[in-house]
Amino acid sequence: MTQLLTRPAAQSAAPETSNRPHRVVIVGGGFGGLYAAQSFGRATHVEVTLIDRRNFHLFQPLLYQVATGGLSPGDIASPLRGVLNRQKNTQVLLGDVVDIDPEQQQVVLKRGKGVPYDSLIIATGGAHHYFGNDHWEKFAPSIKTLEDALEVRRRIFLAFEAAEKETDPVKRQAMMTFLVVGGGPTGVELAGALADLAYSTLKSDFRTIDTHETKIILVEGMDRLLPPFPEDLSANAADSLQKLGVEVRTQTMVTAIEDDRVRLRSGDEESELLTKTVLWAAGVKASGMGKIVADRTGATCDRAGRVMVAPDLSLPDHPNIFIIGDLAHYAHQDNKPLPGVAPVAMQQGKYVAKLIQHRLKGEPIPPFRYRDSGSLAVIGRNAAVVNLNWIKFTGFPAWVIWLFVHVFYLIEFDNKLIVMTQWMWGYFTRNQGSRLITGRDADKVEEVYSGHRRHS
Amino acid sequence: MTQLLTRPAAQSAAPETSNRPHRVVIVGGGFGGLYAAQSFGRATHVEVTLIDRRNFHLFQPLLYQVATGGLSPGDIASPLRGVLNRQKNTQVLLGDVVDIDPEQQQVVLKRGKGVPYDSLIIATGGAHHYFGNDHWEKFAPSIKTLEDALEVRRRIFLAFEAAEKETDPVKRQAMMTFLVVGGGPTGVELAGALADLAYSTLKSDFRTIDTHETKIILVEGMDRLLPPFPEDLSANAADSLQKLGVEVRTQTMVTAIEDDRVRLRSGDEESELLTKTVLWAAGVKASGMGKIVADRTGATCDRAGRVMVAPDLSLPDHPNIFIIGDLAHYAHQDNKPLPGVAPVAMQQGKYVAKLIQHRLKGEPIPPFRYRDSGSLAVIGRNAAVVNLNWIKFTGFPAWVIWLFVHVFYLIEFDNKLIVMTQWMWGYFTRNQGSRLITGRDADKVEEVYSGHRRHS
To answer: Which one has a higher pLDDT value, A68 or B336?
Structure first.
């Protein structure tokens, strides 16, 4: 397929490049889309349009901190216009892309006219995935958007408030039981943050309940936490979580979720857990855009809905359409698709931007290649596991590395100083100022835990 | 009425004080209720229960900064449990007080049992007031709660987004026209913040519209802005706002508000203004608790729904029920009620806590007396008006005073460091990181400005 890469320029744009700028349309302002847009920063004769449904870029790796009251939404979200406003060749459009039209070379917004492109970069990311049990979503929200995080935050803090008022000990324990489903990085981070919250931040806040009686359970279907990490780091993560007070159950599947209980299966053993708060961190699939792309271009999707891409991240028969980030299935050497993590999306965004600029000059570039500089997951306030491939860290040193990596990435936007201050403040005072219960009907607190829960 | 003050102790509690702690119930965790609760901090033989519908104290004077994207909700809200957790005699209850029962000496929660009291402090504050035009609320939201502020923020930023996409110049100008109704401190601060936003923060963010074409209009029914301030400060405020780009129209009333237009009257002159965003900062009335108190105790309310209180802030025939803050009508020497501002509520909260503690010891204390240390209002990024009664400031020196006063008050809770950092950051970079469009259906951006608006 390398012939794709040696083609001088996107065929449609070639005849016109002398007259008007090459129009690049990017759909999605996550890590992939934003890094692609930024990589056109100094490009002349290119006109970039970044389209997103939201007016901000979200730093998703820290979303669990919003959900557990450590950070405010504004700390991890940067307005796209603000991030890109010095880039005069770039326009941000708030809009919902509902279709693409490769014949006319335009993307179709829900309302309004089509937006024409010469090159199209689709980076709409992933959505949560309940493996055919979509009805679980209302009982077990996952955390993909800011609104998800605020809803989870509301549930967590309302659960403690309800427990403080509950006189029945069985019901009270169910309110003080939190189940996190999924032992990947998100689940591990969430369980660790919950343990910090219950056993240290909130420990003096209540008069009736003792927050040390909070039960936090993390279940994972595989035989260890953090499956992509080396085995010793998985073991260390499980160990650190247990020290924090989290009960870790591997080789355990959720078989049913109801309003106040969950059924679990370990091997042949079935059990029931009474809990009012279940958080879903188990499954991710590609966004709905994958299917649209497949329908319109004849591309194929994998089972998770990701679009199979060529070595240069374009579609086989549409060399001017690129899929990057969590929406793309890119098979590296070993035929395993690249993981759905921020560094992959960022590198792919930069790569495609570079490819398009080289194409315009008639220069070929080699296929995309992911440089994996390692992975990390934080476990509560003081511990983390870090795998840099050539060296591994655990415990406090890993936590410091984790902190610096995240602050380093946030440096590129506008929030670094605030987040760093807030973290340090929270670290020294063990206080979390953002543990607010908010939402449109948040003052109707008493209905929430009586009979049925409201859902967003 | 001074005989109330010489009575040795609350009659109901007196016979029991030797057996069990004196039960103080405080309804409302605003400035009045929170300061009252904190003033019981070192009290022994007193058991305090603070009840609020929300789990946080809100620093309302800075709410307009959340509405205009300068601060995040978490920056100006402190969890009540966190603020009070070191006070072992104090219990926080998340609940909605729907009634009081002076016979049984208990407050009634929406669900759950009554909460018994020996002394009751009601501090439920105010609500916005449309002077009989409640149907205006959906077109012209006011800013009393965090959710209000987020909804206003959503409307402001969506208006710019919609304008960026609008091709019809008349409609586009309506989207870029913001009307603030009410020339009190909130209206002045909001108009100034909008001017900063449109003319400096956002100035490089758009490609189609020029945000300098934004129109910001502040209307006030009286003949000058900030009526409670000295006249020269009012003139200075109007002047400063005009320099920022705000059009100030005094002696102007709103007579009708529709989805996309407003009718105004100045004297005999009627005019129509095309605008998609109207913000209400005109009227405040007491919360609904005023009527309940009047019904249950025979107390009288003034026209704004505030409860008339005795010189010691108790109710005439119920010496163990106290009304403080915006809900109270306290006539000082000149028979004018005290203004609905934070310092009044704070001083009243402290006073009542002191009174109750002295009563328990059989000691009388003199009537409440408000020490007015001045008032201030900020106008945009660099100017303010400050009246300390013995000296007045305007411009930048006043702004510095305003900044320090607010940081000083926030010092008492847990957010000072963050807010100060964020302010300084925003001041130096002219960037406002919290200008996010959020909400449950915030991704349905395109429906919002087509035909009808959604309301919270």
So the answer is: A68
Cβ atoms of residues B195 and B156 within 8 Å: no
* Gap between the Cα atoms of A58 and A54, Å rounded: 9
Confidence tier at B78 by pLDDT (50, 70, 90): confident
Chain A residues lying within 8 Å of B425, measured CB to CB: 417-418
User: Least CB-CB distance to B54: which of A82, A93, A443?
Assistant: A443
Choose one of A302, A326, A360: the last residue of a domain.
A360
How far is residue A104's CA from residue A116's CA, in Å, rounded to a whole number? Answer: 8
Question: Does the active-site annotation cover A189?
Answer: yes
What is the CA B249 to chain-centroid distance, rounded?
24
Examine the pLDDT at B12 and tell me if it is beyond 50: no
| DSSP conformational letter for A368 | P
Least confident span in A212-221, B47-56, B249-258, B332-341: B332-341
Read off the tokens for B174: 């309506």
For residue A159, give the amino acid letter. A
> What is the DSSP secondary structure assignment for residue B201, as one 8-state letter?
I
- The residue among A155, A435, A447 with the most chain B CBs within 10 A of its CB, best to mutate, is A435
| Owning domain of residue B10 | 3-53+95-128+285-360
Give yes or no: residues B303 and B407 share one domain. Answer: no
Question: Cα(A148)–Cα(B431) distance, rounded to whole angstroms?
Answer: 26
Q: Which amino acid is at A167?
A: T
Same domain, B336 and B269: no
Residue of A nearest to B81 (CA): A205
Asked if the C-beta of A210 comes within 8 angstroms of chain B's C-beta atoms, the answer is: no
Q: What is the DSSP string of A133-188?
A: -GGGTTTS-B-SSHHHHHHHHHHHHHHHHHHHH---HHHHHHHTEEEEE--SHHHH
Q: Verify that B291 and B432 share a domain, yes or no.
A: no
Return the pLDDT at B109. Answer: 92
Which residues have a Cβ under 8 Å from the Cβ of A392 and sit 6 or more positions away?
A230, A232, A233, A385, A386
A250 lies in the same domain as A396: yes
Return the residue in B63, B81, B110 with the most chain A beta carbons within 10 A, the one to mutate for interface testing. B81
Q: How far is CA A276 from the centre of its chain?
A: 24
pLDDT of residue B416: 53
- Within-domain flag for B31: yes
- Residues B144, B156: one domain? yes
The overall average pLDDT reported for chain A is 86
A426 and A407 part of one domain: yes
The CA angle B176-B422-B59, to the nearest 5 degrees, is: 80
Q: Are residues B340 and B323 in the same domain?
A: yes
Q: Please state the three-class secondary structure of B251-267 as a single string.
A: CEEEEEECCCEEEEEEC
Residues of A numbered 267-306 whose beta carbons fall under 8 angstroms of chain B's beta carbons: which are they? none
Does the model's pTM come out above 0.95?
Answer: no
Q: Given CB atoms, is A455 within the 8 Å cutoff of chain B?
A: no
User: CB of A53 within 8 Å of any CB in chain B?
Assistant: yes
Q: Does B363 touch chain A (CB under 8 A)?
A: no
Query: Which among B82, B425, B436 has CB closest to A431?
Result: B82
B248 belongs to a structural domain: yes
How many structural domains comprise chain B? 2
User: Per the domain annotation, does A330 fall within a domain?
Assistant: yes
Q: Which CATH number goes with the domain that contains A184?
A: 3.50.50.100
Decide if A436 touches B, using CB distance below 8 A: yes
What pLDDT digit, counting tens, does each position of B270-314 carry? 999 999 999 999 888 888 899 999 999 999 999 889 999 999 999
Residue B454 in any domain: the answer is: no
Q: Which of B151, B166, B189, B220 is catalytic?
A: B189
Whether B206 sits inside 8 A of A81 (CB atoms) is yes
Through-space distance between the first and last CA atoms of chain A, rounded to whole angstroms = 46
Which of A328, A360, A392 corresponds to the end of one domain? A360
Cβ of B418 within 8 Å of Cβ of A436? The answer is: no
